[in-house]
Amino acid sequence: MTARIKIIDLLKSEQAQASVLLKGWIRTLRESKEFSFIELNDGSCLSNIQIIVDSTIDHYKEITKLTTGAAISVQGELVESPGKGQKWEVRATSIDILGVAPDDFPLQKKRHTDEYLRTIAHLRPRSNKYGAIFRIRSKLSFAIHKFFQERDFQWIHTPIITGSDCEGAGEMFNVTTLDLNDIPKKQGAVDYEQDFFGKQASLTVSGQLSVETFCLSLGNVYTFGPTFRAENSNTSRHMSEFWMIEPEMAFADLKDDMALGQEFVQYLIKYTLDECAEDLALFAQFVDKNLMATLENILDNDFIRLSYTDAVDLLQKSGQKFEFPIAWGSDLQSEHERFLTEKHFKQPVIVHDYPKDIKAFYMRMNDDEKTVAAMDILVPAIGEIIGGSQREERYDVLQQRIKAMDFDEADYWWYLDTRKYGTAPHAGFGLGFERLLMLVTGVSNIRDVIPFPRTPKHLEF
């Protein structure tokens, strides 16, 4: 029995083949009395392959009634194509119909808006654009592991359900088995002692705190998985569920963190350019005409290092009018980040040493006691792509920061233990995977780079 071959492999063939077996979905079918042409795609690549169907083939009339979206199995011969723009075509010897697609198939051969395609997220991967996005997503997932494994980082599976708030923002999804129609109360508050875990539990906003414990045990480690934020935001940059890559380095400081962040971003850009060229070309042609220039800029330039204080001074003296005025102590907005990367420096920038009051409790306090050893990597077209810091390794200082944030110290006893027993300097960062995909594809809405977006008031599929 002939084994099925993928279109991506067939198109790379150096010579004709007497017999091939293809399976895929019809993109178009053009009929004539003597023969018909089928454009077939199996999802392995952006390109279709042309199937020539002679009118003498079995069930020819039935085959010619097939429409866009139908699934078929094709046995045939790979031959050189006389047509322009294609090296090979398949002359079918037999075709089996695997699944028909009625006339109401939502993906006809025309341009559909992204807004419409989000309503059929279960079918949109069959379109050229979304097929390309999710192939790139798959390739980059592999590249992330490849990068860290080549550098002897250990992959740690951190928990999705947690009792700790890593970011301190309080925007966490509760996880409970309590009867919501009859919630047990104790002194007027929810009695979480009767809940599944015996305490309040949430979906994690970050795997960082957990992965730090392994950093101070195994050395360099990373986690890569889903995170959740109950932030009531409907912007093009926010989702309720997204994926994070969070490496942690033992015996490292902020300079090491910035160096690893730059190396990581540039590695992933190069990997995309090298391994996803065909899919990337679609986005460069139809989504963002400046995409290749943006990616090459990031790849070819060293990242500027700029303190937060100097960044604020530069922005204040720029003469630029911002929607959000900048002052020392306020966080940088997207418009400030893009001004620095796209107008002033015209290349990636790493802003470091932020005010402690706008950063998380676990970031290492600097000697001035006003700033912490934090850094954000900013890139053109996106703004912040990475946020990281040297972690606070001093037990007493970390304890004070937890109290200052009004956290319950009892929730972090295990985290404090890592500073109590054999503490050591360490640093790490977080990179939002969907932000990375927006960068490498030029796609402007984060909902379009994840298979099934989760946003406020939207829980389909």
Explain how this protein is built:
With 461 residues, this protein is of the alpha+beta class. The protein has two domains: 7-99, Nucleic acid-binding proteins (OB fold (Dihydrolipoamide Acetyltransferase, E2P), Beta Barrel); 124-169 and 205-448, Bira Bifunctional Protein, Domain 2 (BirA Bifunctional Protein, domain 2), CATH 3.30.930. It has helices spanning 7-10, 60-64, 114-118, 128-150, 208-218, 254-275, 277-286, 291-300, 308-316, 334-344, 395-404, 413-420, 433-441; strands spanning 17-30, 35-41, 49-54, 71-80, 88-99, 154-155, 161-162, 174-175, 185-186, 189-190, 201-203, 221-228, 241-250, 304-307, 349-355, 371-379, 383-390, 426-432. The strands form four sheets. An eight-stranded mixed β-sheet has the order 6-12-13-18-17-16-15-14, sandwiched between helices. A five-stranded mixed β-barrel has the order 1-2-3-5-4. A three-stranded antiparallel β-sheet has the order 7-11-8, with no helix packed on it. The model has no long low-confidence stretch (mean pLDDT 95).
Low-confidence stretches: none
Distance between the termini: 37 Å
The average pLDDT value, as a whole number, equals 95
Oligomer: single chain
CATH topology of the largest domain: BirA Bifunctional Protein, domain 2
- What overall geometry do the principal axes of the alpha carbons give? elongated
Assign the CATH class of the largest domain: Alpha Beta
Structural class: alpha+beta
CA-atom Rg in angstroms:
27 Å
